[in-house]
Amino acid sequence: MNFIQAILMGIVQGLSEFLPISSSAHLVFTSNFYKVFKGIEIVQHSNEEIFFDIMLHFGTLIAVLIFFRKEIAEIIKALWLGLKNKNFSDKNAKLGIYIILGTIITVAVALPLEKVAEKLVYSPAIVGILLVITGFVLFYSEYRSKQIPTKSEVDLKSAVFTAIAQGIAALPGFSRSGWTIATGLFNGLDRLTAAKYSFLLSIPIILGASMVYPFIKIDLHEALTYNWNAIIAGTFVSGLVGYLCIKYFIKFVAKFSLAIFGYYCILAGICTAVFFTIFS
């Protein structure tokens, strides 16, 4: 892990975590492109690389927490009042309940896929194919959203299906934001509501991975040998780029189609699948 590689991957994570183009796929592509061009065999990642991936996601988590700080405070307050008064009719209290329920569903769906997801990290050509599928999902969501009436509040049905989509998106190439926003559109959420709920729903999952994983799978003595300057720099860059990405993507998705990202996913998926089929 060197400084330039860390900065590059921080930029990639910051952009691709919130755009519907699969951050996990792009981290797989970036890491493996680097190995191919350096003549390094595509083999299992070191613990430092795995830890760095977690820290990149932590950087983008901080970006979400800062950007949606007011919404998060309102949800926590509403949940507290709901517990106190035994009344969860407030829309923010309901949203908090849906996020908690969605997190449980996401974990239940994602856990059985964990080993498959880990193996796909070393199969970038297959990840490219999954990215193509994400592209078609985005196209279909745009088509579907025009056929049904829209609503501006998350309900139980949209919360459950969005959580299932987030769990499936544990597989690299299946964009978390892409699949969750698309699922929101499938279920009649308006574009802005689907995007905001997608980002809020990501918080517990990324927080859990960032806090739990290092303590159960990383040797603290080994961690002392990591290139911490590179790790800290990459984490900072991923957070900064992620914040800017949320800010402008929210404005974009409220007005424009996701089709441009669908085209990108299909093109990038095909190109990377072909490249790694030939060179890996």
Please tell me about this protein's structure.
The protein has one domain (3-279). α9 packs antiparallel against α10 (191-217). The protein has helices at 3-16, 23-37, 47-67, 69-85, 91-110, 114-120, 124-145, 156-168, 176-186, 191-217, 220-223, 228-255, 259-279. The chain is built from 13 helices and no strands. The radius of gyration is 19 Å and the shape is globular.
Radius of gyration: 19 Å
Average pLDDT reading: 89
The count of domains is 1
* Strand residues, percent: under 5%
- What is the helical fraction, as a range of percent? over 70%
Question: Total helix count?
Answer: 13
Please tally the β strands and state the result: 0
Order of helices and strands: HHHHHHHHHHHHH
Ranges with pLDDT <50 over ≥5 residues? none
For the sheet with most strands, the description reads: none
Straight-line distance between termini: 20 Å
- Secondary-structure-based class equals mainly alpha
Shape: globular
Give a quick set of tags describing it:
280 residues, single chain, mainly alpha, 13 helices, 0% strand
Give the SSE layout.
Blueprint: H1 3-16, H2 23-37, H3 47-67, H4 69-85, H5 91-110, H6 114-120, H7 124-145, H8 156-168, H9 176-186, H10 191-217, H11 220-223, H12 228-255, H13 259-279
Helix pairs in contact: 1-2, 1-3, 1-12, 2-7, 3-10, 3-12, 4-5, 5-8, 5-10, 7-9, 7-13, 8-9, 9-10, 10-12
